[in-house]
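lol forgot to send this yesterday, sorry. struct tokens for the thing we talked abt
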């Protein structure tokens, strides 16, 4: 039970919020109005902020792209100068031809050529300071000639010479176009840029560490996390480390070398770029944050001074609409306009309540007058039927039955004159009906029988409208009895669930016609059926006046044949006020 109450209260809260957020409510319209004002403003500021960031990023990207192109052009010019030197040496240096022959043949000339080439390399390396090594390699004699850089240890020189030798041996079988550009070569953990010119079986080339080419770029301020890298065509960094985990946090600018198989890649953190935005950028953030803070504060102000007072009035209006005229809007010191609205509304509810009471009293008087009229309408109707019965008995000179019928009429009239109240006991109604049935049984003898049953003796003290049973019994006598076959009438008094009194009148005649049933299911008026069915209409109308919609009357045909009338009334043992 507690859980059910909890769910009920939760459902009521949901329904309240649904009412509050209805698209026709002031709360909803104010909220939409605020959002229509604030959201476009916020979107405009966000777009402006995004546009400014995009412009700054593009400007920085263009600036660094130009810078990268400038440095790459500088590197390419240096490499091109070395490349020209290598081609010139191949074309005009005769000592290279001596290295293309085995050293056993003309050994003196061979060694003299080696000395000359070594001296040339030592001398020319000073002209091309971007280079670390110039070398000549004889694949016929498997000998390598290089200059010796100042300050280089013998161990390091040995490692580099072995690396050059391995590189040259690997490229002996390469096609000629492989030597057209500078290419990267990894030796241990270091990358080198190399270029080779080939004449016969002799190779001449240049060799430089990738990090040495990048030294001029080290003078640029790209922030503590900015990077400038030489990368291979496979994007392998040749100096430094690529930030693979958060590479999207960097502005990336790259330029391809025209002389070599590598590129210059500049990585600048967006945080470094955006820290140089104008002061207006921060003002935008302050405006957005301020709007987000002010909006709920302003909404609370409107809620306290406008929405809550309106909600109080609307809540009372709904309760008054549901019929609770005792509800009033409580006075709150909010504003003079709402105080006036509350006073006027409370005054209107007072007037409506007074008018409703007056209308209700007039309605009661009208219903009582109509009920009296209906009861008087029954009396002559039944009285005429009774006189017709006496007339028929007189034709047969059955004076005993005439006396019984006259006695019945006396009891009937006494019953009617003593029953000014709108309700009588079931016991009195049954006694009255039994007298009538006895007369009809004597009249039709073997052609008519009846029985009356009650589920419990206490039901005989229940209150029902007068002549409610007798009306439908008389209808059976009038329309069901024929001389062709006997008719049996059965009256049942029972009780259903919910304190409901059930009255059933059933006969074995021909039953109601389909036309009559169809018309009665449509709540017919008396004039729609003529005087033959005025008793049924009278009973239905009296039930409506006394019980409103709490009483039910069903007319049907029993599956075994005959008419079936069922009346359900609120079970009561005292007169209604």
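and heres what i got for the seq, position by position
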């Amino acid at each position: 039970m507690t859980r059910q109450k909890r769910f009920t209260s939760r459902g009521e809260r949901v329904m309240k919020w649904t009412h509050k957020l209805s698209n026709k409510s002031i709360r909803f319209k104010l909220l939409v109005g605020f959002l229509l004002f604030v959201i476009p403003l916020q979107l405009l500021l966000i777009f402006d902020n995004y546009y400014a960031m995009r412009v700054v990023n593009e400007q920085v990207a263009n600036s660094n792209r130009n810078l990268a192109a400038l440095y790459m052009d500088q590197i390419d010019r240096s490499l091109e100068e070395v490349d020209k030197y290598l081609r010139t040496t191949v074309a005009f240096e005769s000592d290279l031809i001596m290295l293309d022959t085995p050293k056993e043949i003309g050994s003196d000339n061979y060694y003299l050529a080696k000395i000359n080439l070594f001296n040339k390399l030592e001398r020319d390396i000073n002209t091309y300071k971007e280079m670390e090594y110039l070398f000549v390699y004889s694949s016929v004699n498997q000998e390598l000639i290089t200059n010796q850089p100042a300050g280089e240890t013998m161990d390091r020189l040995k490692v580099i010479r072995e690396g050059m030798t391995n590189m040259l041996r690997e490229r002996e079988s390469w096609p000629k176009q492989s030597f057209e550009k500078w290419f990267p070569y990894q030796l241990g953990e270091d990358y080198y840029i190399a270029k080779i010119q080939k004449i016969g079986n002799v190779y001449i080339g240049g060799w430089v560490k990738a990090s040495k080419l990048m030294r001029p770029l080290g003078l640029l301020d790209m922030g503590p996390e900015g990077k400038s890298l030489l990368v291979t065509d496979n994007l392998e960094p040749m100096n430094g480390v690529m930030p693979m985990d958060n590479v999207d946090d960097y502005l990336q600018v790259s330029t391809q070398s025209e002389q070599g198989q590598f590129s210059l890649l500049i990585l600048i953190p967006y945080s470094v770029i955006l820290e140089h935005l104008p002061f207006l950028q921060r003002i935008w953030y302050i405006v957005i944050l301020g709007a987000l803070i002010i909006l709920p504060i302003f909404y609370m102000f409107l809620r306290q001074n406008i929405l809550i007072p309106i909600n109080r009035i609307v809540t009372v209006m709904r309760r008054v609409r549901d019929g609770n005229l005792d509800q009033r809007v409580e006075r709150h010191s909010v504003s003079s306009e709402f105080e006036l609205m509350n006073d006027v509304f409370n005054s209107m509810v007072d007037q409506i309540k007074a008018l409703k009471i007056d209308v209700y009293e007039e309605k009661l008087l009208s219903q009582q007058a109509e009920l009296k009229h209906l009861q008087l309408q029954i009396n002559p109707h039944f009285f005429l039927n009774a006189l017709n019965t006496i007339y028929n008995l007189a034709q047969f000179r059955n004076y005993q039955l005439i006396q019984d019928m006259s006695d019945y009429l006396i009891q009937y009239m006494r019953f009617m004159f003593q029953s000014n109240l709108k309700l009588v006991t079931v016991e009195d109604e049954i006694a009255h009906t039994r007298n009538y049935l006895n007369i009809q049984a004597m009249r039709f003898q073997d052609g008519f029988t009846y029985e009356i049953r009650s589920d419990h003796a206490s039901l005989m003290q229940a209150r029902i409208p007068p002549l409610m049973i007798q009306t439908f019994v008389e209808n059976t006598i009038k329309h069901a009895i024929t001389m062709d076959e006997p008719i049996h009438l059965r009256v049942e008094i029972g009780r259903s669930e919910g304190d409901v009194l059930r009255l059933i009148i059933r006969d074995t005649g021909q039953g109601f016609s389909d036309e009559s049933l169809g018309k009665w299911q449509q709540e017919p008026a008396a004039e729609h059926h003529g005087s033959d069915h005025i008793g049924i209409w009278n009973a239905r109308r009296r039930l409506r006046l006394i019980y409103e919609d709490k009483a039910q009357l069903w007319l049907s045909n029993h599956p075994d044949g005959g008419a079936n009338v069922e009346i359900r009334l609120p079970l009561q043992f005292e007169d209604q006020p």
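The mean pLDDT is 79. anyway ping me if u want another try
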